[in-house]
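Q: Got a minute? One more chain.
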Amino acid sequence: MKAKARAHANIALIKYWGKSDENLSLPMNSSLSLTLDAFYTETEVEFTNSINEDVFFLNGVEDKNTLSKISKFLDLFRIARNMNERAIIKTINYVPTAAGLASSASGFAALAAATNKASGLDVNSRELSTFARRGSGSATRSIYGGIVEWQKGINDKTSFAVEIDDASWDIGMVVVIVNREEKKMSSREGMKSTILTSPFYKNWPEDSQKDLKEIKIAIKEKDFEKMGYITERNALKMHATMLGANPPIMYFEPKSILVMQIVHELRDKGIPCFFTMDAGPNVKILCRLSQGEMIKNRLMEDFKEYEIIVTGPGPGVEII
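A: Always. Here it is, folded:
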């Protein structure tokens, strides 16, 4: 009753922002993402009768603050499997935690896969994505590699992710780590505040669905530039809804703006690249993977080399 899994982070190109059901983590709109090779989480789960409560270690340190959330997540599998054993969970994050780099996505996808195997439940990938969603909404997408769509659905069984493209046509990202520290406001809190107080939010779900439809056409046609422009526009619209919240929510930092300006500069020089940001200050640049090092070299005029990571598409979750 022991298994270890690896899952990779994903970065949304069409953002998920806001829940229609907090308990089930059902989103207000469908979303689309790119799974990244460079950022991942490895998690080992061992069920045993030798302990009376779950134990959770994050990066080698026992984490009691997150334990209740982890235990509640494992209960989904225990109930489905009709088992009572407690678990020892050991997680190593190769992603800065809670910094807007999708550590919760890779974290809960890896936890879901390891628990699925260790418990003997052995559901398929689609159903596994519905379990992962209950831990972190974006984790539903990290079950798969390449370009992934999270279909919002209408209930627990119909809200799941599907892979729509392997992203093998020279697609990559340059990730600029502006700040590795944990962000002051979590995505969960930010979503709630935006829905409740921003006058701009009411148009977000429907407008995002239009973006999703357009970007899927661009992907099918392998029109990279169209895909990029939609990605950048969608990110800015999401942040606009946050800026309209009361009090306003702003994840941008001065260096975030600098990266955006560099992207526009590079585009003016004929290099197709496009920025996106999640709920955190770090900026991700969608680009041709073959031009990633060129973009990195320009960024190194203003950033340290260790702050810039070039990555290609990542694989789906795997047992290791």
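A: The mean pLDDT is 95.
Q: Perfect, thanks.
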